[in-house]
Inverse folding.
């Protein structure tokens, strides 16, 4: 079955056009024209990924993003026209996995979607890092027997770091391995998601023990 | 001291007042001293002459009444003259000499009686000659008297009065009375000292008064200057205190009025400008959503162009190209609006300029190949390190290169990199159509094109150089241009090695500069 993509955008033409592009690339689109209906449409359509416009009438994209994140870890990609404002950071902090700047090309859109839908693969079945045990097959993280719920992206980020403990990953390396960017992208993606990940796995996110910052270079596990 | 005068109105005013009143006081003191001296002298002279006349008559009468013939008696009378004359008179400072007129044939043996301690040399021969021929009149002459006071020679003014005296038997004599004016001199000196001390005190008082008064007058001006300074620094709502009805209050009121109107104008202009900036930014953003749709649609059509008939296929290609151009234009507009809004921050890091130049050339290479332009590069061997925003500088260089390719008529393009102690520089030189003076002046203007009728092949937006200039200024650098019609153009970017440092000369020269290091415009 083809993956279902929920397109939340108030612009009718763009919404339809994105639908055409998605259909042409083998996805099944679902639509929602405003922020107020986004959550109910999300629940009823049960998509595999959400394309979410930041500027929406009614509830804005950032609020919608938070609502969806509260009940689901599925990939969310924000669509934004303003890269210089706080929108991007706010969207990422609200739980969006990635963002695309308008105007974008069809290939860029489908590449970003495919990168987010790509299954997480690993040569090993499970990885242990500090007090955490990552069950790669079951997509689960156990901390002292307790399950921690991570989004697929957070799981992938942690797995990437944990598979090579002590190795320092630069932000650019992580952008390539986790987000699938092969060119220079926004390092804020990494910063924000490391913060989100820490808030879920660390005892004290301000004094991280599992995912450590290597000043001036990047991050390292353990 | 000189600097203080130049800086401080108050110091100048006080100095001028003191100097002028000093000159006036000196003149006044001089005049007073002179006329007091004159007055003292004349009063004393009058008294001396009166005394002398009566003394001469007295002496003459004494001799006339004596009718002595013998020498001894005569000498006794003569000798009595001097002490007698010394004793009379108001002042005790007179001395007397009864001198025999030279060439007389009377009794030679008679001694000339002279007051003790009197040097007859002070009575000049010329004066004596005058006295001899004075026909009985009393004559006087001012002289200098020397006296010993506490072992030191003291000079004092004096007057010698002389008159011929007829002495029976002995013949013609001259009677001289010498008056010392030391006490008058002392009085005069005392008056002069008093004048000097009083004058000095007066100058100090005048200086003090001038200081206080000018300070009082200058203070409001100082305050006004400080407030102007504050307003110039952006504190538009600072005002002067309006108090009273005098000229200073008028100054304060007009100053405040001016500040009010300035503030209104600035606020109005700022809001208009802000609205415009907002408008440009909003338009650019609002256009992005429809542009996304157009782009997606255009791309789908472009991808399937092979299945369309030739005119539709060409249309799809044109559409695709123009959508791209539209997007670049929109991005440039946004970038400019960010600069206008002052919302641009450079991401400064230490980079190797050689590397950034290499990246820019690599990314422009397809266009250069398409236009058959050959790019030659002249780089220093070592890394050329400087602090800058690599993304912006690469974009800037790409833009300079694209311009050089577009206007270079496929002739070689030369890129140079250089550095000196304070700055790094890149120059991009083409040998193409160049520009004339009028074109040069407008080259950084927004949407300005060297030749509006020219075919636009590289899809420039007309904002490229305007953005390049903004990028340069953001780095505290300089973007200089040289061009000549038919000879080509040279753009030179100079950046400080360390942000915030002042750059006085560029490491590279423009084609019209002969010196080793180029001047910055």
């Amino acid at each position: 079955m083809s993956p279902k993509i929920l397109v939340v955008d108030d612009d009718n033409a763009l919404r339809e056009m994105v639908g055409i592009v998605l259909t042409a690339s083998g996805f099944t689109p679902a639509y929602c024209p405003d922020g107020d209906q986004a959550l109910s449409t999300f629940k009823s359509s049960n998509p595999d990924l959400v394309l979410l416009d930041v500027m929406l009438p009614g509830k804005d994209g950032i609020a919608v993003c938070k609502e969806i994140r509260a009940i689901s870890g599925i990939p969310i990609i924000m669509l934004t026209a303003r890269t210089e404002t706080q929108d991007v950071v706010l969207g990422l902090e609200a739980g969006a996995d990635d963002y695309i700047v308008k105007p974008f090309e069809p290939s860029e859109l489908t590449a970003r979607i495919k990168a987010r839908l790509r299954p997480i693969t690993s040569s090993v079945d499970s990885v242990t890092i500090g007090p955490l045990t990552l069950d790669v097959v079951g997509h689960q993280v156990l901390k002292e027997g307790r399950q921690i719920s991570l989004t697929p992206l957070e799981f992938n980020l942690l797995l990437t770091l944990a598979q090579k403990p002590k190795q320092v990953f630069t932000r650019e390396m992580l952008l390539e391995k986790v987000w699938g960017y092969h060119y220079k992208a926004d390092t804020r993606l990494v910063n924000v998601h490391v913060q989100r990940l820490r808030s879920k796995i660390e005892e004290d996110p301000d004094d991280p023990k599992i995912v450590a910052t290597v000043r001036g270079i990047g991050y390292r596990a353990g | 001291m000189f600097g203080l005068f130049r800086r401080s109105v108050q110091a100048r005013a006080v100095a001028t007042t003191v100097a002028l009143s000093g000159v006036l006081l000196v003149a006044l003191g001089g005049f007073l001293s002179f006329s007091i001296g004159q007055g003292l002298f004349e009063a004393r002279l009058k008294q001396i002459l009166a005394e002398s006349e009566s003394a001469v008559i007295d002496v003459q009468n004494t001799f006339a009444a004596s009718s002595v013939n013998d020498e001894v008696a005569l000498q006794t009378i003569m000798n009595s003259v001097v002490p007698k004359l010394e004793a009379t008179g108001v002042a005790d400072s007179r001395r007397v000499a009864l001198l025999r007129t030279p060439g007389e044939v009377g009794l030679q043996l008679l001694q000339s009686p002279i007051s003790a301690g009197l040097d007859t040399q002070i009575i000049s021969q010329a004066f004596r000659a005058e006295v001899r021929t004075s026909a009985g009149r009393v004559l006087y002459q001012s002289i200098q008297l020397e006296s010993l006071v506490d072992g030191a020679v003291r000079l004092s003014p004096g007057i010698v009065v002389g008159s011929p005296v007829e002495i029976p038997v002995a013949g013609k004599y001259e009677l001289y009375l010498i008056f010392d004016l030391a006490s008058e001199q002392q009085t005069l000196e005392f008056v002069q000292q008093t004048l000097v001390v009083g004058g000095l005190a007066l100058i100090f008082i005048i200086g003090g008064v001038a200081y206080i008064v000018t300070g009082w007058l200058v203070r409001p001006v100082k305050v006004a200057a400080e407030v102007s300074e504050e307003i110039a620094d952006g504190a538009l709502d600072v005002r002067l205190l309006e108090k009273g009805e005098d000229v200073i209050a008028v100054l304060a009121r007009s100053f405040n009025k001016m500040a009010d109107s300035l503030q209104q104008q600035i606020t109005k202009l700022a809001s208009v400008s802000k609205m415009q900036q907002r408008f440009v930014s909003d338009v650019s953003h609002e256009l992005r959503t429809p542009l996304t749709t157009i782009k997606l649609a255009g791309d789908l059509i472009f991808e399937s162009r092979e299945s369309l008939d030739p005119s539709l296929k060409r249309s799809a290609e044109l559409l695709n190209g123009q959508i791209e151009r539209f997007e670049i234009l929109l991005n440039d507009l946004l970038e400019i609006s960010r600069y206008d809004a002052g919302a641009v921050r450079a991401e400064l890091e230490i980079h190797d300029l050689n590397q950034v130049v290499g990246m820019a050339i690599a990314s422009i290479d397809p266009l250069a190949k398409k236009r058959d332009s050959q790019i030659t590069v002249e780089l220093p061997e070592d890394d050329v390190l400087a602090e800058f925003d690599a993304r912006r500088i690469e974009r800037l260089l790409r833009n300079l290169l694209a311009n050089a390719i577009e206007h270079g008529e496929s002739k070689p393009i030369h890129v140079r990199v250089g550095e000196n102690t304070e700055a790094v520089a890149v120059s991009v030189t083409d040998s193409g159509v160049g520009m004339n003076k009028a074109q040069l002046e407008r080259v950084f203007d927004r949407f300005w094109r060297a030749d509006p009728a020219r075919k636009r092949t590289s899809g420039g937006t007309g904002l490229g150089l305007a953005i390049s200039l903004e990028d340069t200024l953001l780095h505290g650098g300089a973007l200089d241009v040289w061009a000549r019609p038919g000879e080509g153009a040279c753009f030179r970017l100079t950046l400080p090695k360390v942000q915030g440092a002042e750059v006085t000369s560029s490491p590279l020269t423009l084609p019209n500069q002969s010196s080793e290091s180029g001047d910055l415009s």
